[in-house]
Every structure is written in C-alpha cells, then in structure tokens.
Request: fold
Amino acid sequence: MPHITVKPFDTSALTEGKHGQTTLLFKSQDLSSTDEMIGVEIEEEKFLLHIKKAKSTWLLKYDKVTRPLKVNLVKQAISDISASLELEVLNSNINIHKAKVMLAGIYEKSIGDFVDITFPFESVAIEVGFGSGKHLLYQAQKNPNRLFIGIEIHTPSAQQVLRQIELQGLTNIWVVNYDARLLLEMIPSNLCHQIFVHFPVPWDKKPHRRVISKAFLEESMRVLDVGGKLELRTDSHKYFWYALDTFLGEDIAKTAVEIRKNKALEITSKYEARWLRQEKDIYDVYVTATEQSAERILDFDFSFNTTEYKEGLVEKMAKKPLLFEGFFVHFEQFYQVDNDAILIKLAFGSFDRPEHKYIWVDKNGGYYFGSSPVKTVTNHMAHLKIKECLNV
Reply:
C-alpha cells in the first residue's frame, strides 16, 4: 500500500489547513513511541496517515483502519504533504495512474450506507469474498434484474471489480470493502435470494477467523427469504467437514442442508481451474432458509454526548483488554493531539468479529473518526462500556 521513505524532518511544519489538494486536520503524538499520526481530508474522505520513525529514515504511510477504498486519495495525500514540506524522498510507491483509475463510484458502498438504503431491484444476492470477481461479474451479467452485493476485504480486489463494472457497463453490482460478518448484520431480514461463499480462506491454524460460524449461519438465515440458499463452495476437506459440523451442530435446532461433490459450475475461476487440474475434490454445501425472520431494527446511538477530555485521562484508562459477557474492549494506542484533545485507537465488539476504530476526544465531546461502528447489539454494548471508561 502507498508509502514514501523520507529523511527525518521537522514535524512542526505540519500545520492545519490546505496542503495542495489535501486538508490537514490535525497531528498527534503517539504516547508510547516517537511516531506521529496526522488526520487528513481529501474529496470529503477523512483518514489517517502514519509517520513511522526510525533512526535515519522515516515512513509516511497509510493507516490500515481508516484507509479509503480509492487508493489514489491516499497517494495524493502523501504526495501533497511531501511536496508542501519539501521532504527529501528516498523511496516512493505513490505514482498516481489516473488513466487506470475508473472506479465506478456510485457502485462503491460503505458499511454506513446500509443504515438507511433502498434496494431498487426485484431480488438481491450477496457474494462474500469475491476475489477476482469472475463469479460475481458473471452472475450480474446473467441476472440483470437482480442486485449483487459483493463483499471483499482485500482492497485491490475490490478496486479491480469496480473497474470491471465500469468497463462492462454493469448497473446491478454494489461493492463493499469491509468484513462480511459485520456487514451482514446491516442487511434487512428476508431480503436475499442467495448468499455465495466460494472458496473462503481455510484458516486451518486460526479457525476463529473463518467466515463460516454459528453466528454467520444465523445471520444468513435471517437475511435470506424463505427458500433462499447459503451456498458454500470449498476445495478444503477440513473446511467442508467443519462447515457440516457447524450447520448440523447439536445447538442448531432446525436446518435444511444439501451436499454435492465435484459439481461443475458455468463459470470457473483461475484458482478453481488450477485445483481441478490437480484433481482436487470440490465440495458444495447448500443451506436453505425455511422460515420468515423478524425485522431487524437498527436503532442504536453511538454518540459521545456526555464525554469530554480531562487531564490525566490516559493514565486512568485500562491498557489490557477488558472482557465482558459476549464482547470485549481494548484501548490499544493513545495519540496526544494537544493539551485539550486525544486520539484513541481501539478494538471492541464480538470476539470473532471485532471492530477496529479511532475515537477523537476533546473538551467538547467525542466521536468515532472516519466512520461509526456497525449498528449491532454487541457493538452498542461495547460502546456503552467505552463511554463509561472515557467518563472516569
């Protein structure tokens, strides 16, 4: 991802205001190292840039938590800051290829869009982790009256599909660069015709990171209309049996499961073609929704109206993860902005689907920098605990 290596410079020159096309909102000092973090805004996108300091060279790079999908915005911001301060650049990978960037903006959705959004199609399908997008694009071409929501956490893959949407003139795909397990909780009940999960990462050594879980099954069955199907396709023998154990577990009261082995699809990705050449078995597991689900109400308040920055706040904050029934809160990093404000990096929410955010706190209150958390019950319980911690 975008970064430059530079000679150390005087960061006092980083003043608020315009630096080329980029507005510098603030700078902050990491309280546990010499690193600094700066807040920027460009084309109405707010995100952070990290100044990582070594002895003889520094890195000016993107922040993973707040990065926008349009990588050119990050490159432009780094370029603007570098040019404005006349930094001595030793190495760079921020060349901006404008001719190559054809992101179909109206088809790029953020998770926040789903708080209040309409679905202007006869039916809706979701693909979780679409990778190269070959299957997603094929399905959209084949079913022009169906909206396909493609969810992909890998940013370059999301960008690639956005380019293909524009090149192919498709109008029935939305691309979301986010964790599917969290986004699914934002989807209305009984909306979807299908949910595709094709060749998810097996995570044999870290099974807690797998997409398929009891919670994911429950959310999928809620989101699917009666007769709709969750479709898992995998080349992993272990993942196949793990999924079956999940879908048919003792704590699953009712389910309808269908299994197929080595079923040929109309479209084959390059990875699947490779596995077929290696004569690997391919497993399909279908779970059908059999009941109507209750409507999902997303009426949660994630504000910090009663919170304000007080001297000594950081010293009072817990530095180790706080564990509660069904959720956790971990204040990971603290950045002092000035004498009256602080930026806090934290993780919170459910143990298998945590949120990662920054919180700005000053004399006038606080807010989540960049975007608010996903509106789930678990995140709201964690938010209330975060407010308690900030109001000590």
Observations:
- The two ends are 38 Å apart (CA to CA).
- The chain has three domains: 3-99, 102-288, 313-390.
- The CA atoms of residues 5 and 59 lie 5 Å apart.
- Residues 313-390 form one domain.
